[in-house]
Every structure is written in C-alpha cells, then in structure tokens.
Amino acid sequence: SGTVEFKNVSISQTADGTVSKWYDQSGNDNHAVQTDATKQPKIVSAGALVVGGIDFDGVDDQLGLTGTGLDIFKNVGYGQVFSVATSDEASTGAGRILEMKNGGTTARYVLGESLTTYASYRIGGRRLDTDTFDSTSASVGHGGTEKLITGFANWSDAEAYVYQNGANVGTDLSFQTAGVTSNTSSKLVNTGIGSIGFDGRIREVIIYNTDQSAKRRAIEENIGSTYGITLT
Predict the structure, then answer these.
(1) Strands 42-45 and 107-113
(2) Residue 161 buriedness (CB in 10 A; 0-12 / 13-18 / 19+)
(3) What is the CA radius of gyration of the chain?
(4) Which of 28, 71, 140, 202 is the most buried (most CB within 10 A)?
(5) Residue pLDDT, tens place only, 61-92
(6) Which helix (H) or strand (E) holds 227?
C-alpha cells in the first residue's frame, strides 16, 4: 500500500458540508486536516453530495498534512503520486493537487497547475534544500473533465514524469542531481492537498516514497477501473 492514501468520503447533510479531516486509508495515520472552517473544502453543497470528490474553492481551501506526514519526502529517493482530480482552471495557475514543502521557501514536491501552459498540470520540485526549483508541464491539457494524474519525482534517477490517464505527457531527464532528498522535514505552510488555491475537485491521492515505476500501469489500471476512467 502507499505511504499515504486519501479516498473520497460520503457525507449526508441538509446544507453545505465541509471536510475538516481527510483520513489516510493506508493505516499510517497521516491524515490531511483543516481546523479553520473558512478554509475547509466542500463535500456537500446545498444538501447534495459534491460530484467528483472534495471541492476546493480556488481561493484558500486546503487540507494540510501534519505530524509524521511532513516527513514523507524526507531523505528518500522517490516521490510518486497517483491522483484523481477535476480542475476548473482554464488559464495558468498555481493551484496544487499535492504540495510538500521543505524547511525552505521552495516546494520539494508539486503536482498541480502549470504556471506556463494553459489548463495543464505539471510536476516539479527540488531534491536538496539548496536546489533551484524545477518543473515540467504536461504537453496535453487537462480540460474540465476528471483525469487520473500521476506525478513521479524520481530524485534518485534525476528524472521527473507526469502521466495523464496513463499516457506520458511530460518528461524531464535532467531533474535535479541524482540522489536522495535533504534530511529536512517539510513545514506546515502550504504542505498538503489542494493548496495555493486549487480550483476543482479531488477524489483520491495516493503517495509513495518508494519506486513504483514497474507497478505504475497496474496501479493506474486499478484506479481507472474504480472510477470509470479509460486509460490511453
């Protein structure tokens, strides 16, 4: 199983319902939480369950990782994330499906909107605290429909990849320098799911800090079968 696995939840309410804690399904208790009610994403809108997962408002909603969850990408060689999301971003943007930020000012791992290509996802990050942030945008847009987005930051191999519905849409073969990440844990600010104003729904996030390259397609096929997503 993954180091962290977040899946859609079902709640029945008569008005709006928000999520204060998204439980880690892997058994490692790395839950994603938000104690500020004004920043909690919706799961129920006007009494109806949100379609497509948990709805982030594109402004300040975020579910943050705390405790040992902040150490997921500490002193490791791989940051590999499988996610199911629907983005409402039609332009460039900074919203993240997942961000892990180290003790500095630049993110160690980012899977989210592209800052340079309209309505597309990107993979980015840095290995060492002293590295310059690097990112690669997908060559295919995400549109406004649900997608299975896989982001591999293979620090040990100095490579990064982004896949959309199983197809490779972005490759960086000079991603930082090969090796493990700095032995520095993440910090709380903007570390978590739906950060920096992600606008859309997130249904699932599975995080590995070990190499799943050989199993990638099988994992994607399982996720695609679960949510009715056809792989290419």
Answers:
(1) unpaired
(2) buried
(3) 16
(4) 202
(5) 999 998 889 999 999 999 999 999 999 999 99
(6) helix 216-227
- pTM, entire model: 0.93
Contact 194, 204 (CB under 8 A): no
pLDDT in tens, 124-169: 999 999 999 999 999 999 999 999 999 999 999 999 999 999 999 9
Strands (DSSP E) found in the chain:
4-6, 17-18, 21-22, 32-33, 42-45, 48-49, 54-57, 63-65, 79-87, 96-101, 107-113, 121-125, 134-137, 147-154, 159-164, 167-172, 192-193, 199-208
The helix (run of H) or strand (run of E) holding residue 218 is: helix 216-227
Residue 207 one-letter amino acid? I
| Residue 156: φ, ψ to 5° | -60, -30
Q: How many CA atoms lie within 13 A of 110 on its CB side?
A: 26
Residue type, 29: D
Instruction: Copy the structure tokens of residue 121.
Output: 């996802």
Q: How far apart are CA 202 and CA 97, in angstroms?
A: 7
Task: Evaluate the CA torsion angle 113, 164, 218, 84 in order and state its sign.
Answer: positive
